[in-house]
């Protein structure tokens, strides 16, 4: 007898909506249909486990096959199958999921059941002009049923013959989606979405090279690993197991192995398993993202995990698997709720635990990896308050000698020498050893220590450390003369008239080379007769703002501002004294003409520029020529 009817829907246009908008990516249908087959198989296992099925389970693999001639893609399982009543209930009533009913009955013993929404099956209509179901329940004397629908609310359902229990889903692929009849396409999708499903997924036969071509063997081609590494107990695993799994996840990163990893295995108050790898992070944040794969009961969901882990942890690689993460019907976007927050906090804590453990137990190894860890830890401290508080214990500062210190250790090292007259502790740093060499050496001659802060986030990180510590400031060694960076006592006053300052300033500026987007001001300081006559510094605040602007769009206006430098004249040096005396007897124009013919001021300015790495191109060439002439 042939039954005819209409699928129970609440919207007349439900199928066009399903076909176009149910999932953002049509290829997702393969995940949904195969996941349903796995669910049916897992249910069969559960029934056998609790004694509700006493027959032979036999082969529980899910088989996928393509018939290009008939333009069909078939997914077959030997799971629990369905009766006509169950087809009517679970297929003909959209969004009534059989998984929910099954979980209610067998929640204490159920193997991992994937589906919860009852819409996954209908994703098949995104790529099919017709879908058929041939199914037979595991129940004794069950009658096989054939269901067919062409993508309208109308269906047909009739009795049929089927030797074995289980379900065949037959997709008649439409003209717009012929790519899903290609073997390579389906194999790639199975590897993407079904690579770690808990039931063997068979797609054709394994092949071997024979007589100049690949031919099928008798062995089934199982495309998935039913017991992936993250589902195994950490106690039984070795380092090589983790490295091998990493290579499988990221076959194009073989030459760039991870530094270490965390194996997550939580049963309460939520379920969470996974492995997170710490890659060697390079100075490019964006390229490192989307390397964590999210699974739900071993079904691939997404590699965009910003909603499940804090932003800074998206720089890690690896796998997270949790059935407790709520997903929308497409499983493509995460919904925020308390479970997600708990899982996120737990992952952050485990990462902090691992780093602190490595720092305490294997400090030498930790220091060796610091340059690769630095960007990750700084990013975490800047973006996550809880992680920041933990990380203060194991975040390191590196000085010019390549020695590493925690903040507390470094404070103890420098506080006697680098505390200024106002009680501020001054952390000196450089971000380019070569360009700031002369300033670094000047600081060392004073007995000061200098940090190397050349990382992508160091400017922001220093600001954070200043906020965390009272009366602490970071100052680059070239931001002022070394005598004034850490003032120990009142400095000698410079007693010049405004006219003298103006005349000398104009004379100095007249000898500067032309430099785009660069502005100079002239400052006068008493630095002692033996200190260099002219030095060039850059204000710490304005330089920091420009560096931050390079990474923060909301500060872009700072990036458009010119670089500002101070030309510091040592009024106690004989040459500068002579220049000041000249300014008393000559007006501005005469003084400029005098220094232009003398060449000594020009030479001293170029020397100062050269020591800061600022003398380039034509100006550098002129300096070299003038040096030979003066010799």
From TrEMBL:
An MF annotation (GO) of this entry: unfolded protein binding
Keywords: ATP-binding, Chaperone, Cytoplasm, Nucleotide-binding, Stress response
InterPro entries with a match to the protein in the record: HATPase_C_sf (IPR036890), HATPase_dom (IPR003594), HSP90_C (IPR037196), Hsp90_fam (IPR001404), Hsp90_N (IPR020575), Ribosomal_Su5_D2-typ_SF (IPR020568)
Stretch forming the signal peptide: none
CDD domains linked to this entry: HATPase_Hsp90-like
UniProt xrefs under Gene3D superfamilies: 3.30.230.80, 3.40.50.11260, Heat shock protein 90, C-terminal domain, Histidine kinase-like ATPase, C-terminal domain
Domain Histidine kinase/HSP90-like ATPase: 25-177
Transmembrane segments: none
Classification via Pfam families: HATPase_c_3, HSP90
UniProt: ATP binding residues: 32, 36, 77, 82, 167, 331
PANTHER family in UniProt: HEAT SHOCK PROTEIN 90 FAMILY MEMBER
Family recorded in the similarity comment: Belongs to the heat shock protein 90 family.
NCBIfam families tied to this protein: PRK05218.1
Full protein name: Chaperone protein HtpG
Organism of this sequence: Proteiniphilum saccharofermentans
Gene: htpG
């Amino acid at each position: 007898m042939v039954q005819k009817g209409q699928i129970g829907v609440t919207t007349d246009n439900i199928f066009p909506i399903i076909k176009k908008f149910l999932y953002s990516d049509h290829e997702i249908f393969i995940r949904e249909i195969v996941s349903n087959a796995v669910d049916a198989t897992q249910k069969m296992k559960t029934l056998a486990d609790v004694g509700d099925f006493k027959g032979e389970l036999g082969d529980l693999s899910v088989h996928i096959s393509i018939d290009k001639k008939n333009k069909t893609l078939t997914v077959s399982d030997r799971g629990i199958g369905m009766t006509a009543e169950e087809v009517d209930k679970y297929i003909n009533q959209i969004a009534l999921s059989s998984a929910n009913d099954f979980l209610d009955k067998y929640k204490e013993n159920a193997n991992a059941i994937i589906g919860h929404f009852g819409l996954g099956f209908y994703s098949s209509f995104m790529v099919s002009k017709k879908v058929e179901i041939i199914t037979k329940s595991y129940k004794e004397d069950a009658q096989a049923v054939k269901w067919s629908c062409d993508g309208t609310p109308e269906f047909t359902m009739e009795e049929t013959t089927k030797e074995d229990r289980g379900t065949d889903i037959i997709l008649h692929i439409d003209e717009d989606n012929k790519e899903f009849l290609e073997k390579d396409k389906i194999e790639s999708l199975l590897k993407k979405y079904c690579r770690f499903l808990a039931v063997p997924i068979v797609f054709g036969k394994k092949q071997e090279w024979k007589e100049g071509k690949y031919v099928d063997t008798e062995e089934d081609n199982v495309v998935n690993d039913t017991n992936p590494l993250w589902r195994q107990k950490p106690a039984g695993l070795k380092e090589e197991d983790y490295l091998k799994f990493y290579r499988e996840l990221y076959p194009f990163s073989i030459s760039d192995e991870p530094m270490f990893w965390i194996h997550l295995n939580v049963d309460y108050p939520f379920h969470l398993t996974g492995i997170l790898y710490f890659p060697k992070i390079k100075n490019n944040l964006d390229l490192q993202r989307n390397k964590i794969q999210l699974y739900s009961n071993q079904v691939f969901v997404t590699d965009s995990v910003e909603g499940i882990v804090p932003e800074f942890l998206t720089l890690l690689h690896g796998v997270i698997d949790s059935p407790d993460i709520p997903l929308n019907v497409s499983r493509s976007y995460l919904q925020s709720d308390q479970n997600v927050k708990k899982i996120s906090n737990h992952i952050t804590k485990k990462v902090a635990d691992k780093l602190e453990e490595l720092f305490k137990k294997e400090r030498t190894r930790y220091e060796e990896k610091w340059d690769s860890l630095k960007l990750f830890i700084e990013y975490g401290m800047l973006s996550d308050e809880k992680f920041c508080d933990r990380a203060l214990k194991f975040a390191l500062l590196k000085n010019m000698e390549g020695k590493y210190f925690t903040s507390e250790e470094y404070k103890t090292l420098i506080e006697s020498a680098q505390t200024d007259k106002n009680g501020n502790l001054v952390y000196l740093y450089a971000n380019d050893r070569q360009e700031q060499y002369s300033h670094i050496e000047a600081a060392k001659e004073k007995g000061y220590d200098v940090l190397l802060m050349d990382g992508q986030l160091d400017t922001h990180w220093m600001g954070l450390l200043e906020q965390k510590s009272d009366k602490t400031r970071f100052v680059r060694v070239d931001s002022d003369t070394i005598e004034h960076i850490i003032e120990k006592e009142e400095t000698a006053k410079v007693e010049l008239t405004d006219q003298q300052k103006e005349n000398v300033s104009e004379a100095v500026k007249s000898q500067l080379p032309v430099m785009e987007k660069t502005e100079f001001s002239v400052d006068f300081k008493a630095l002692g007769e033996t200190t260099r006559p002219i030095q060039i510094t850059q204000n710490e605040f304005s330089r920091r703002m420009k560096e931050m602007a390079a990474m923060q769009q909301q500060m872009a206006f700072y990036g458009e501002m010119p670089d500002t430098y101070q030309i510091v004249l040592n009024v106690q040096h004989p040459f500068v004294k002579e220049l000041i005396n000249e300014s008393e007897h000559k007006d501005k124009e005469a003084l400029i003409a005098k220094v232009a013919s003398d060449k000594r001021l020009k030479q001293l300015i170029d020397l100062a520029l050269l020591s800061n790495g600022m003398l380039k191109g034509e100006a550098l060439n002129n300096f070299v020529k003038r040096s030979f002439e003066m010799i």
